[in-house]
Amino acid sequence: MQLTADQSRAAQLISAYAPYDPPRLPLDVGDLWSLLWRLDRTTRMPNRERYYRSCALALCRGMGLEKHPIYRFIDQTPAGEVYQLLPTVVYRVRGRSLDAHDQKAAVEQLVRLRDDILRIGVYPESWANKWPGSGIQDVELRERVFAVLFTALNGQFGGFVRMLLVIDIVVANLLIDIQLPEEIALGRLIKAYQYPDPADAQMRDLYLVDELTTP
User: How far is CA 185 from CA 4, 23, 60, 188, 193, in A?
Assistant: First the structure.
C-alpha cells in the first residue's frame, strides 16, 4: 500500500536511524528529537552512543545550530539523560523568567507524549525470541492477544503516530526559537556536516558489536 507523505515522514521518526536502516527522506528537526531519543537508549553501548551523538550533532550543524545552546547540551549531556533533560534547554535560551518556566512545562508534556508514541511504535524491537503472548496455551485467548498486538494496534497507530509531526514543530518553536531549514538531504549531511555514512563498513560493524556484547 502506498504511504502518504505524512505517513512516510512519521514512519521515519520511529525508525532506528541505524546504519542498516538509514533515513530515506530528508531530515528536519523532528529527526533530531528522534535521534536524541535513540541516544538515550544507548547506555552501556558506547559505539552506538557515539554513533547517535554524531548523527545528532551533524544534523545540528546542518541546521545552523552550532552556536545555539542546544548543540553544547547534546554534546555534553550523558546518554540516558539527553532526551529526558531536553526541556531544560529552555533555561539555557531564555534564562529563569516566568515565561521560561511555563515553556519548560509545556515542552515536558510534549516530549513525554512523544516518548509514549515512540515506545509504542518500536516495542517489537524488544521481541528477541518470540512474540508477546506466544506462550499462552489457550488458543482463543492467544488469538485475542494477537488481534490486539498485530491488528488493532497497528491499524490505530498509523493515525496516532502522525501527532509527532505537530509535536515536533511546537517543541522546536519553544526550544530553539530561530528559523530552521525545513529539511536536509542525508547525502548533504554526510558530505558537508560529517553525518555518519551508512555505507562505511567499519562503522556498521561497530554498531552491531554493541548488540552482540550488551547483556
Answer: 19, 9, 13, 5, 11
d(CA 118, CA 201): 28
Report the chain's terminal Cα–Cα distance, integer Å. Answer: 38
Q: Using only C-alpha atoms, what is the Rg of the chain? A: 18
Task: Work out whether the CA dihedral 144, 150, 156, 157 comes out positive or negative.
Answer: positive
| d(C-alpha 119, C-alpha 109), whole Å | 15
* CA–CA dist 84, 115 (Å, integer): 9
Nearest to 21, CA basis, from 34, 30, 12: 12
The pLDDT of residue 36: 98
Q: Please report which residue ranges of 20-77 form alpha helices under DSSP H.
A: 29-39, 46-62, 69-76
* pTM for the predicted model, two decimal places: 0.86
Q: Which of 42-56, 157-171, 188-202 has the lowest mean pLDDT?
A: 157-171
Backbone CA torsion sign across 35, 38, 43, 44: negative
Tell me how far CA of residue 96 lies from CA of 1, 30, 85, 89, in angstroms.
Answer: 49, 26, 16, 11
**Looking at this protein, which amino acid is placed at residue 59?**
L
Give bridge partners of residue 184 from the DSSP assignment.
27
